Amino acid sequence: MLKTLVAVLALALLTAPPALAAKVNFSGEVTYRERIALPPDAKLRIELIDLALPDRPRLAVSAPTGAGQVPLAFTLTFEDSLILPQHDYALRAEIRGTNFLFRNTEPFPITPLAQTEPAVIVTSPVIAQAEPTPSEEPAAPQQLPLVNIIWQASMIGETPVPPAVEITLMLEPSMRAGGVGGCNSWFSQARVDATSFAIGDIARTQRSCLADRNMLEQSFFDALKAATSWRIDRDILLLLDRSATPLLQFTR
Predict the structure, then answer these.
(1) Which of 81, 114, 116, 241 is close enough to 21 for a disulfide, judged by CB 3.0 to 4.6 Å?
(2) What does the pLDDT read at residue 177?
(3) Which pLDDT does position 244 carry in this prediction?
(4) Which of the residue ranges 88-102, 162-176, 225-239 would you say has the lowest mean pLDDT?
(5) How wide is the angle at C-alpha 203 spanned by C-alphas 248 and 181, nearest 5°?
(6) End-to-end CA distance of the chain, in Å?
(7) Which part of the chain is CATH 2.60.40.2990?
(8) Under CATH, what is the fold of the domain 23-126?
(9) Class assignment of domain 149-251?
(10) Quick check: pTM over 0.85?
């Protein structure tokens, strides 16, 4: 009788359907400290990382922000069967646009199956560099004479820049561009070769300045975006439009 009961129990265990994996929703928000507005093309991406198996494929969710501003809410949904005992887990967050990237510098540790409060992930700015296409030959920006110099704007079109106003451009060998726009700090990613010049989307801080200073700054950014070529005459840098008309003039 006992043997029969044991056999029945063993058969029941063998034929029992496997337990269904439960869905887990892990929520939180992503933010950054810089006072920079997100453009409409910005996207938020969240990755769940197994720190014990860094090469293991990561569970991730990516969604457009829809020009929403930080803090950006997220919910990461996964099956509890993906979480292995005795393993440590973390989140990596990034907010990516055409020419910029915000990312947390260290993985954000979590307990995936025992969330007690929403996660708050603070990211930092990183320049997102575009990948060159196979047909493009790599440039040597460090050899260009306008790189690694702080250029002070002296003219915007035909309008002189007041001496007390700081409007600057600096181009790094990585093609990161940045400076001061007259009111706000700004940065972008540039594409420059021996003659051509192009600037990507401009991210800026959001200081409040007087109306005339704001107008001057916007004129600078508009001219910067419209520039298609450059040349240096002695110590003067000129950014030109398609018809070779000077849009901006800088001095060292």
Answers:
(1) 81
(2) 86
(3) 93
(4) 88-102
(5) 40
(6) 99
(7) 23-126
(8) Immunoglobulin-like (2.60.40)
(9) mainly beta
(10) no
For residue 59, the cross-strand partners are: 48
Residue 97, CB-side half-sphere exposure with 13 Å CA sphere:
25
Average pLDDT over residues 6-22: 57
Residue 164's alpha-carbon distances to 85, 134, 153, 183, 213, in angstroms, are 63, 46, 11, 12, 11
Amino acid 104 reads N
Per-residue tokens: 189: 């990613």
pLDDT tens digits for range 22-63: 888 899 999 988 777 777 778 888 888 887 776 566 776 666
- The C-alpha atoms of residue 62 and residue 72 are separated, in whole angstroms, by 12
Pair type for strands 108-110 and 43-50: unpaired
Angle at 30 between CA 29 and CA 33, to 5 degrees: 130
